[in-house]
Design goal:
The complex is a heterodimer of chains A (about 250) and B (about 650). Chain A is an alpha+beta fold and about 250 residues long. Chain A contains eight helices and seven strands; from the N terminus they run ββαβββββααααααα. Chain A is about 35% helix and about 15% strand. Helix content of chain B is about 35%, strand content about 15%. In chain B, the strands form six sheets. Chain B has a five-stranded parallel beta sheet, sandwiched between helices. The chains are: A alpha+beta (about 250), B alpha+beta (about 650). At the A-B interface, helix 1, helix 2 and helix 3 of A face helix 3, helix 5, helix 6, helix 11 and helix 12 of B.
Chain lengths: ~250, ~650
């Protein structure tokens, strides 16, 4: 209790997508180590507003690690240095007194900056709309227990479905590829019987949408898996590749 | 005179909805295409409604303030969703789910609505499984269930501790499919800031593009609000930072009555406040009470570590006071009990405002692996936030604002008192009475969106097939846009000294201190004056940086806080008026000798529906009397 540290923040400031940005440095004395990282930014913004300056814009909403809204690079790592942690769940007790903390937005051509640390992730929407669903209208679904699913398969599908769509995978990838995001959805449905009827079409369409949205190719560096706050495994990309190959070969 | 026609269908409870569905008016497919529906919000209720209405052939526009519909706050629901499947063979049924919900709500909900909800619950599970939602399964491949507070059966379906996420992603995928077909046009990073009324009907909205700050006009034959709860009126709550009341508040000011605004759910198991900088509170799912035991030391001011306190010096107060339900009493009961032991000076942790939630015995009985499988992500979340390991020492928890049972008054069709304006999910008042049971919010959101509104909206739209689109150059749109612009200009021009957060925190403190877990006439009266003062303070001293025509989150927040302040006043008025205790509303003047909430059915068995009468004028109270034909209200007992 009452533990505080002094920090220097080096933050990317950019007015909008058209103007070019730059780093600005802010002194942050007396940071309470029980704060979350975003609460630390709240404190900074409070001060900036009182000084008549523009606060730092950043995306955030649930602040409990599930909505996927928060998105920033902290000291060169997506969501900071802790494994399996979103920015909103990162607490200041993991930083050291006297440290300079560099904060940047996601960097990817497909994620243009809107302001400061806020980026446009519409590319993910396009991928989802291309096939991230089972085509079943509301009503008339059979009784849920008429479709038993092997527990191991269901669990693996769940592991893939845990993706929060934050974009850390894209930001961490040197090619700005969204393969981990894409593969998580393809994999979830490839593992489940519900996904079977559209299996072939889905993967082809989603991969095409991925490329069209300006995301890069996957070269298997594994950076996405290392930085994913939900621990989505790169093995889903392997499954995606199998699915894609299978679908391509069976094309009429 | 009475606009509060609940439109509950005649006939026995069990057949009302079936009869309604087979007799409700329909809109033929070619006409549906020409009818435009605006859906505000993309959580469970909004996304499912937008998708289901588009599947039927309506032309739909859907709006959300986040950068993607997938981020709506339904995503954060942890524990589960109820359904009367009786897969556990433990005696569950539609009737029991209905009965538990009415009782859990302390007899302040409408029987017919709740029965419909229970009836629909099973179809929701079927629908979600068909969409590929990965619910928890047993080794045989069938769906698994667990228990939640206030019930004695296992009817809760779940997906680890991320049920809301998986259900929302299901609804989001259905929505994405309709967007790809062009049946839904999605407006991300847009906020609804006004309802446009033409000839007494809701005919559109003014939306603000949160990236550019531009105002937009959108016409709709009907407007469906699914904008969630208003718990952030307390500043600290388990809601997302952006969750707000603005859409329903605008609707209220355009003539939609506000039902039971003071009914707030304080959730018993949240991580306690740690400091002044705190921006939100994090819930620890109620499901933890399946295996966790709640206790405090028997002695006051016992500062020993939990592990050092022997069993005979611990007070497992829920098990002691409520032997029949034990740690699984409903939320309102558990929260009040926690407050009582802390008020007695037996609270734990640095602030003394916390109780233990202990897994020691379950880990001993079931093994760490099983506890990890059930609650792994919750334990992890707890450790991230507090730095403590709940596998080795108990969690510390305290109640926090979580859900608002109050909301816009709606009839059986989910239409507000404004024709053509609907309210779904948490933003309406309908199904949970004075206290919501765990795992029922997800059920209601999806019931309203997938299975209720697609039928009931036809009843209204059947009369609208000859109504063409109104061009948005119509004077009503013109006037609505101007009033929005004027308000934004006034906000920007205050140029005061206090930040929006300062004022929001002040509001939160007033509401928590006087309109929180315990309420009394003296405190509420005082709070009323304080909130009215705060409103003046806000409009004379708020400071908003930047401009109106740019990405400006402070301006977005300012508009929301201005509305929260006005809503706070209404909540206090409602709490003052309701001189009984019921569910989450605890009037200290009305309690039993044992300190339990004491209802007053003779005088308060009604829905308080408040009507806006103009700025600075007291709102008018309308009453919808509650009829109980099937369930007989008794003093709720979980002993």
């Amino acid at each position: 209790m009452g533990d505080t540290i002094n920090l220097k923040l080096k933050i990317w400031r950019q007015k909008n997508s058209k103007e070019s940005g730059r780093f600005e440095i802010y002194d942050m004395p007396g940071v309470n180590t029980h704060m979350s990282f975003l609460e630390m930014l709240d404190v900074l913004n409070d001060r900036l507003i009182r000084e008549g300056k523009d606060p730092v814009a950043f995306d955030h909403d649930c602040r409990e690690g599930i909505c996927g809204m928060c998105s920033m690079y902290i000291n060169g790592r997506a969501h900071g240095m802790l494994k399996g942690t979103t920015t909103c769940q990162l607490h200041m007790r993991h930083f050291h007194d006297g440290e300079t903390v560099t904060i940047e937005p996601w960097r990817a051509t497909a994620f243009p900056v809107i302001r400061d640390l806020v980026v446009d992730r519409t590319g993910f929407e396009k991928i989802m709309q291309a096939g991230g669903y089972v085509s079943v209208n509301t009503g008339n679904a059979p009784d849920a227990n008429n479709l038993p699913i092997e527990k191991s398969k269901a669990d693996e599908a769940f592991d893939a479905a845990a993706c929060i769509g934050c974009g850390a995978c894209v930001a961490s990838c040197k090619n700005a590829s969204a393969m981990l995001f894409l593969s998580a959805k393809v994999s979830q449905f490839a593992l489940l019987p519900q996904g079977e009827p559209e299996r072939r079409e889905r993967v082809l369409r989603m991969v095409a949408a991925h490329d069209e949205a300006g995301f890069g190719s996957c070269t298997n560096t594994g950076a996405c898996e290392a930085e994913c706050p939900k621990g989505i495994s790169i093995s889903h990309i392997a499954r995606l590749n199998r699915e894609y190959l299978r679908a391509s070969l069976s094309q009429e | 005179m009475n606009k509060l026609a609940s439109k509950i269908p005649d006939g026995p409870l069990e057949t009302k909805w079936t009869k309604f569905k087979s007799t409700v008016r329909l809109v033929n497919p070619s006409n549906k295409r020409r009818i435009e529906v605006l859906v505000i919000g993309s959580g469970l209720a909004g996304a499912s409604a937008a998708a289901a209405l588009a599947e039927l052939g309506y032309t739909v526009k859907c709006f959300c303030f986040q950068d993607s519909p997938r981020r709506a706050h339904s995503i954060a629901a942890q524990g589960g969703i109820n359904a009367a499947k009786n897969y556990a063979n433990d005696g569950d049924s539609v009737f029991r789910l209905f009965y538990d919900t009415v009782k859990g709500g302390d007899y302040r909900a409408r029987e017919a609505n709740v029965y419909r909800l229970a009836e629909i619950s099973n179809a929701i599970i079927d629908q979600c499984v068909a969409q590929g939602v990965p619910f928890a399964r047993e080794y045989g491949g069938l769906l698994d269930n667990r228990s939640f507070g206030g019930v004695q059966v296992s009817r809760t379906f779940y997906a680890r501790g991320q049920t809301g996420q998986q259900l929302l992603l299901g609804a989001y995928s259905a929505l994405s499919r309709q967007i790809s077909k062009g049946a839904v046009t999605m407006y991300n990073r847009h906020e609804m800031v006004e309802v446009v009324m033409i000839d007494g009907k809701a005919r559109g909205i003014i939306a603000r593009d949160l990236v550019t700050g531009e105002l937009e006009r959108h016409f709709g034959h009907a407007v469906v609000l699914a904008t969630g709860g208003y718990g952030n009126v307390f500043y600290l709550s388990t809601n997302a930072m952006g969750s707000n009341t603005t859409a329903i508040w605008k609707a209220y000011k355009q003539g939609a009555y506000f039902g039971n605004p003071c009914f707030t759910q304080i959730h018993p198991t949240c991580i306690p406040v740690s400091g002044e900088y705190q921006s939100k509170l994090t819930l620890m799912s109620e499901s933890l009470r399946n295996d966790g035991r709640v206790w405090v030391p028997k002695a006051k001011g016992d500062k020993r570590k939990a592990e050092e306190i022997p069993d005979e010096e611990r007070d497992y107060y829920l098990e002691r006071r409520y032997p029949a339900f034990g740690n699984l009493v409903p939320r309102d009961v558990a929260s009040r009990a926690a407050k009582q032991v802390c008020d007695e000076g037996r609270g734990v942790g640095p602030s003394g405002l916390a109780v233990f939630l202990d897994f020691r015995d379950s880990i001993k009985r079931l093994g760490r692996a099983l506890i990890e499988e059930r609650y792994g992500n919750l334990f992890e979340m707890y450790e991230k936030i507090t730095g403590d390991d709940p596998y080795t020492s108990p969690m510390r928890i305290y109640p926090a604002v979580h859900y608002t049972m109050g909301g816009l008054w709606v009839d059986y069709n989910l239409m507000t008192t404004v024709p053509g304006l609907y309210a779904l999910g948490e933003c309406n008042f309908s199904d949970h009475g004075a206290n919501r049971l765990g795992a029922s919010a997800l059920m209601q959101g999806l019931a309203d969106g997938y299975f209720v509104i697609p039928y009931t909206i036809g009843d209204y739209l059947a009369d609208e097939i000859r109504t063409g689109s109104t061009p948005t150059s119509h004077p009503a749109f013109e006037a609505a846009e101007k009033s929005v612009k004027d308000r934004i200009d006034s906000l920007m021009n205050v140029k005061g000294k206090q930040t929006v957060e300062d004022l929001h925190k002040k509001l939160g403190k007033i509401m928590w201190d006087y309109c929180g877990m315990g309420r009394n006439a003296e405190g509420l009266t005082k709070a009323l004056g304080m909130v009215r003062e705060l409103k003046k303070e806000f409009w004379s001293d708020v400071r908003i940086p930047g401009g109106a025509k740019e990405f400006n989150p402070e301006l977005d927040k300012a508009g929301r806080v201005a509305d929260f302040i006005e809503l706070g006043e209404l909540m206090i008025l409602d709490a003052l008026n309701r001189k009984e205790s019921c569910g989450g509303h605890f009037r200290e003047e009305s309690q039993t000798e044992e300190g339990e909430a004491k209802r007053d059915d003779e005088n308060f068995s009604y829905v308080a529906a408040w009507e806006f009468k103009g700025e600075g004028v007291e709102p008018m109270l309308n009453k919808e009397d509650l009829q109980f034909d099937v369930v007989h209200p008794t003093q709720r007992s979980y002993k």
